[in-house]
Every structure is written in structure tokens, then in C-alpha cells.
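Researcher: For the annotation table, I need C-alpha cells for Elongation factor G. Please keep the output clean. Sequence:
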Amino acid sequence: MRCFTVLGPSQTGKSTVVEKLGSLEGTPRKSSSPYGLNLTEFTFGNEAWCALDAPGPNEALAHAQHALLASDACILCVSSAPEEAVLAAPYLRIIEASGTPCILFVNRMDEPRGRLRDVIAALQDYASHTLLLRQIPIREGDRIIGSCDLISERAWRYREGQPSALIAIPESTAEREHEARTELLEHLSEFDDWLLEELIEDREPSSDALYAISSRVLRENRIVPVLIGAASHGNGMMRLMKALRHEAPPVGVLRQRLAHAGTVDEGKLVAVSFHAYHRQNVGKTVLVRALGEGLRQGASLGGSGLGAVQNLANGRSNSAVLPAPGDVFATIKSDHLPVPSLLTSGAVVAPPEWTEPPTPMLERILVPGSERDENKLSETLAKLSETDRGLKVLQEEGTGAQLVRAQGPVHLRDLCRTLAEVFHISVTDRTPSPIYRETIAKPSEVHYRHRKQTGGAGQFADVKLSIHPNERGQGFSFGESIKGGAVPRNYFPAVEAGAREAMEKGPLGFEVIDVGVTLLDGQHHAVDSSEHAFRTASKMGVRQALSEGSPVLMQPVFRTEFHIPSVYSGSLVQIVAALNGQVLGFDRDETAKGWDIFRALVPGGALEDLARALRSATQGIGYFSKTFDHFEELYGKEADAIVRAKEKAGTAH
């Protein structure tokens, strides 16, 4: 079986392309994953094929990445509008990072919204490989009625629902065809000395020789050939499928590529897991592509026995099925297989770095609908994060509530639907509270005496303390300047412990940071003094001193790193400024053509608005990662509102 992925932005007709390709020589068999990955098995040219139709939204990019891990080649569907080329940038990025041979298909040529050469020029801004036209459109007025193949120099007129008809190259197209063919041959000659010599000697190379060279350079991933058509009308589908058949590399090339990327012995690499999902009453289903011989139910794979091998189309298990190299199959009761991963018979090997999905930007607390759901939620989210690497599961600081990081609103909605439909867990979501702190603006001193008589031994401790602001990031510090043994040394740890306890909640209601406490003086009683008494006196004294030290609210500030196409870099300056952030600068992304890495400091309370603004400004393409940098003072109405909200929440509890 040969396998390819069809991917690209939403609304570019990917699913229609797969449907038409699968129906060229028979009836395809289709299966779907809850995550939106569709698999279509079909026969073409007496060969078995499997097309992986990757979901289009940027929030599902991780599933497209993992599909490439199991693919011999891929088809990138793009719009015929030059201004929409940027929407293909994330897909060109992951295709090039993966090293997967790619055919670029400009779809919907029946409704062109720009010149083809402008579309290719705009896409070239995001591709390190040369995008090389293999066909040009034939126009009749404003309509595109067919295409001309630049290698065979044959022209074809589209016919609705029928194979295209061979025609003579129209005079109006001849000049453009000659120009585009010359450019094609010049680029191909860069990878073939024989062709270069033929061109220098002004000899016309044969079509068969050119097809052979084209096939080799695609298999070697040297260029990205560009084909055109309109899948909804069946136009260009046969030519696209023939290109895949003759030019896409066999499964052995994929095995070699993955072994090299994963530093695995090629001879031991027998399979790759690339997708998984949970089904009600079934459990975890793992999709696997065989790369070597010997796979069958019960065979050792990834260090444990392979579970039941299932037919993709009907889900039926058959212990007699022996997947051959290249076959794609589903397996259940193989929970030991992580996704994605490279698999030998005895071990699981981590996938290449390029399979790492974009950093999720949307943070939400999931609130279960019942106590029963609360007990199941944590375990279930852990299971789902194993099958969806675009999802991160954490716990909220302070409350321990389940915090999830999703790729965006659609991803979050799909997660909640899966929890409800597959695991019967009802949840609502809320925005997590930003993590605030407080400190003091000026030093103060306090004299506090703790005295308590309860009938037996009493409690007595007398302390004189000073507190002062520390430098930012220094944290809590404790010291003493006791003279003459007014407070015995064995009580110093209790005084420090009491001071630390007081820092857990300051006058504004938040944890106190960057404050130093010094024990200046005090008194003790030979009978009634104890560690508990001095701890209590210190805690109460420090609390009093904090309220007299001009408490200040502190907001977290995060260092953010944006990954965006360069055309959007200018708009980020205004976005960051509007959120009271600080721009640190940007650089070209050396790993992805046409992309920038933009850096800024952004207040933690603005991250939700930042994610929303970034999605809007970059059409959902850009994403950012964040790391905590420091706390800084927050004053004015915003600070007052946060403190009032904290007080209200405390009263409610």
C-alpha cells in the first residue's frame, strides 16, 4: 500500500480532492477519526492506496504533522487567490521540516481570483524548495477551460464529469507555454547533468527522459512541482494521481527517512504510529503504518504484544491479517503504543522534533458537573493528552483544579464534546485567575507580645521586628541582631517560620514576595515561652508590619515568543503596546522561510486578550509561547479592581 497526506488551509477543497482521486478507478472505502483525520483506501493502477485527509483548521495542525510521519508524499491544496497564500505558510513550514516530498495543487481554478504566476510567487515567499510549474492554464476569455502539460506539451480541455479531451495547444497559449517550459527545463537541469548538456547543445530532450528526471527530483525532495485543476468538477484529478503514482517514492524511502531522523537502525524500524483516539466501549484505537515485515496480532511491537489488528473501513478484527510493508491498519488493546512514535519490535523511539505541535495559547479551567465527574476528569484528561499532543493538561496553582491548554476555541469545544460523548463527563469552562502577588513599598517596625494563660503552662513570646522591601526577585529573607540572649537562639527558627507563614497572605489578600524580616529584640519566659509562642508572635507581628508597609499589588510579567509570518510582524507592535507590553525585538526565523520570531514582555492578565488579538491579526496562523519573567508593581484603578475582586471571592468562600 502507498500512502499520502492531503493537507492545506480550510476551504481549499482537500476533501473533494481525496474523494475524486479515490473514485477514479472504483469505489473508495472511507473511515474517520473524531479528531477530523479522514482515511480513504482505494485502488489505482492496480496498486492499493491510502489517502490521509488532514483537518484544515490551524488548531488541528498537530494531526497534519503526525499524518506526514506516515506518508510517502503529500499534496498541498492551496487557493487560487494570491492574497490567500499566507494561509498555506504553516503547512509549507511543516512539510519542509518533515522532508516529505510534496506536490502543490492549486485548486478551484474554475473560479480564479488572480494570475497563477502571482499565486506561485506569493507561495514561494514561504518555501525554501523551488515551486515549479508543471502545467499552465488554458484560458478562454476570463474562464479557464483546460491545462497544458509542460513536459509532454499536450493540451487538455476540461469536460464536466468526464476525462479531459486532448486538443492542440491554442495559439493564445503557445507563447506562455514556451516560456514556462523553458523555465521548467532550466530548473530541472540544475539536478541533472545530462539535461544540462542537452540544453547547452540546443537539443530537445524527450518527454520520457523529462518525466524520469521529474520523478527522481521529487523522490529526492529537490523541488515542489505545481499542478492545477478544479476538484469539484473532476478537472486535473487524473493528472494529479498519475504524478503521485509515477513520482512519489515507495515506502522504503520513508523508512530510511524516519530512521535517519530518529537515529534508529533502519533494519529494526518496523512501524510508525501516527494517530490515536478513544471510542466508547472500545477504548484506545491506534493507527499504525507498517514499515517492515512480521507484524501480526500478538507480535512484539514497541516492547509488548500487538493487540487486535483491525480493518480501517469496517473496524473488524482479523487475526489472520498480516500487514505488509506500507499497509495502514488500526489496532486496539495496544495502549502501550504512544502516538506518534517510531516502533521497533522491542522499543518505542521518540518521533523527530518537527512533529512537536505549536504551543497551545488558550487556557481554561474545566469544571466538572458532578462529584462523580470530578473523580474521573483528571484520569480522562491524561488519556486524551496522550492521543492529542496539541493539548496540555496542568493543575491551577492554589486550587488544584484541572487546567487545560488548547490550541484555540474550536479545539476546546471538540475536547468538551469528546468528554461528554465518549466518557460521559459533563464540564463547563472558565478563565483561570492570573497569579498576583504583593510586596511592600517602605520599611516598618513592630513590637508584638503574645501572651496567653490557659490554666496550665501559659504562652509567652515578645518580639521586636523590622521588615523592609527586598530587591525584585530576591524573595524572602530573614536575619537577626539579638544581643544578650533576649531571645534564645533555639527560638530563631520559630520566629522565621512565623514570618514565612505571614507571607502566605498579605493585607491585599495575596502571597507576599521580596520582603526581608529582621528580629531586632524581644523577651522570653523561662517557663511559658515555647517555639509555638514565638512562631505565633512572629506571624501576628509581621502581619501587622506588612499592613503598615504600604502594600503594593504585583502582577506577573511573561516573556513571550511569537512565531508569525513576516507580513504580520508590524501589526504585533500595536497589539503588544495596547496591552501595556514591551516589545523586545524580532529576528528572521532561520528554520522557516518567510517567518519571524517576535519577542515581547506582556503582563499575565493580558495573555487571554493577546491570544485573541493574535488569532485575529494573523488569521489564526500565529502562535506564541510564554515563560514567567518577573513580577512588577501594578497601581491605579486596575489594581483596585483586582483587590476588590479578591476580597469578594474571599467573602464568598
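Researcher: And a one-line annotation?
Model: The radius of gyration is 33 Å.
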